Amino acid sequence: MRMYDLIMKKRNGEELTKEEIEFMIEGYTKEEIPDYQMSAFLMAVYFKGMTEDETVELTMAMANSGDIMDLSEIEGLKADKHSTGGVGDKTSLVLGPMVAALGVPVAKMSGRGLGHTGGTIDKLESFPGFSTDLTKEQFIQNVNSIKMAIIGQTGDLAPADKKLYALRDVTATVDNLSLIASSIMSKKLAAGADVIVLDVKTGKGAFMKKEADALALAREMVKIGTNAGKETVAIISDMDQPLGFAVGNALEVKEAIDTLNGNGAKDLLELVITLGAYMLVGTKRVENIEAAREKLLGTIEDKSALKKFQEFVEAQGGDARAIDNTELLPKASIVMEIKAEEDGFVEKIETEEIGMVCLLLGGGRETKESEIDLSVGLVLHKKIGDAVKKGEVLATMYGNDLKKMEIARERFLLTYSFSKTPVAKSAFIKWIITKGGVEKY
Ligand code: URA
User: What is the pLDDT of residues 132-179, one digit of tens each?
Assistant: First the structure.
C-alpha cells in the first residue's frame, strides 16, 4: 500500500477501506508517512468528505494508535465532557468542579487552543505551577481522592490525533465534520470514561457555523460513542456570540471563579447545568434531569464547587490562592476601554473574529510552536439584544503591546453590528441528541 494512492483515491472522492485507513494512521503515527502527504490527504478530505463508515474507522484507528486508558481502578461510572470549540468557552472550568463536588469522578483529557478557539489546558496554566502532565498513576489517584483530574493529551493517548490536530491547525483543515468527529471521539474513547457528554457549538464562533452541520456532527459522534459501548449525549448550543463575557485565558479563569462564586453569566450557567445534569444522570448519581439541575445549583450556593476547584488546582501543582485572590492570575499591563460609536441594539457579533482579535493580542497560537500570552483578551460588556448608547463601553481590552491593541481595537469595533430596533435573542441551547434520537431543548 502507498500513501500516494490513498491521497489520490480520496482526491477522486472514493471511499477508503478499513485497512487503508489503518495503514495511513499507523504509518503517520510511526512517522513513516510525512506531514506533507498527510496535509494533502487532509485537504482532499476537506473537499471530498468522508462517509460515516470511514469516519468510524478513522476514529477507531486513532483511538487505537496508542494506549487506551484503563480507568477500572476508579470506583463508579466515570464521566467526560468535550466541547467542539468556541470563543470564551470556559465551561469545563466550572462544570468539572460542580459535578466532582457531587461525587462524579471527572477523568478528563483536555486540549490546547486551536485556531480562533481557546483550550482548557492553556487556561488552567494561568495558575502558576499548574501542570496537566500527570502520570497515569497520578491521574487515577487524583480522580480517586478528589474526584477530578485533567490531563493533557499525552504522547501515549491517541497520538495520531495529537499529530493530526496540530497539522490541521496550520493547514486550514480543522472545520470538517469527519475530522472533528474522529478527533474528539478518538480521544474520548482512549481516555476511557463510561459516560461522554458532548458540547457541540453552532454559529459564527463555532467550527460548525450552520445548525444542520452541527446536528450532523453531533449525530455522528453520538453514533460513534454508542457503537463503542459508551453512554453518549450531545448538546447543541449557540456560539453566535462568545460564551459568557470574557475571552482570553486568565480572564476566562477569573470568569469561571466568579461563576463558582455565584456571579456567573446566564448562558454559561445554563450550559453548565444542562451538561452537568446529563453527566449526573448518565453516571446514575441522580434519577432525573430536573433533580440533577437542582443539585448542581446547590454546589454553587454552598460553595462546594469552588472548594473542589481549589483542591483540584492544588492537586495539580497550581497556586490555588489565585482562586481567592484573582489578582494573582497573569495580568496585562495595559487596559483599554472600547466605546460604541453609535446608538442601537446589538444585532450580531462576528464571534470568530473576536477569537482572532484575542489571537492578535497574543492570546492564541499562530503556529504549532507559538507561545501564548495568558494575560491578554477582552471582556465584553454588551451582548446580542443589549441596548447601547454611543460612547458606552462595549468591551474592555487587556494587552501588553499598545500598537497591537490599537489594531485590535479597530478590528473589534467591526465585529459588532447594531439595529435601530430591539433585537430578539435566539434560543441558547437548541438540541439534545441521545442514542434515542434528536430532541428540541
Ligand atoms: N476539538 C477537538 O478535539 N478536535 C477537533 O478537531 C476540533 C475540536
Answer: 989 888 999 999 999 999 988 776 889 999 999 889 988 999 989 999
Of 327, 345, 339, nearest to 410 by C-alpha is 339
Instruction: Kindly state the helix (H) or strand (E) to which residue 299 belongs, with its residue range.
Output: helix 289-301
Residues of the chain with pLDDT under 50: none
Burial of 289 (0-12, 13-18, 19+ CB in 10 A): middle
- Judge whether 82 counts as a catalytic residue: yes
Nearest Cα to Cα of residue 96 among 323, 305, 310, 311: 305
For ligand 1, atom 1, the nearest C-alpha belongs to: 84
Question: 1: which 3 cell numbers?
Answer: 500500500
What spacing in Å lies between the alpha carbon of 113 and ligand 1's midpoint?
A: 10
Q: Which of 10, 168, 295, 382 is catalytic?
A: 168
Residues 85 and 207 sit within 8 Å (Cβ to Cβ) = yes
pLDDT at site 404: 97
List, for residues 40-54, the tens digit of each pLDDT value: 999 999 999 999 999
Global pTM value: 0.91
Q: Could you tell me which residues come within 8 angstroms of residue 49 by beta carbon, excluding any fewer than 6 positions away?
A: 176, 177, 178
Any atom of ligand 1 within 6 Å of the Cβ of 183: yes
In the chain, the amino acid numbered 114 is: L
Give the span between the Cα atoms of 87 and 355, in whole angstroms: 6
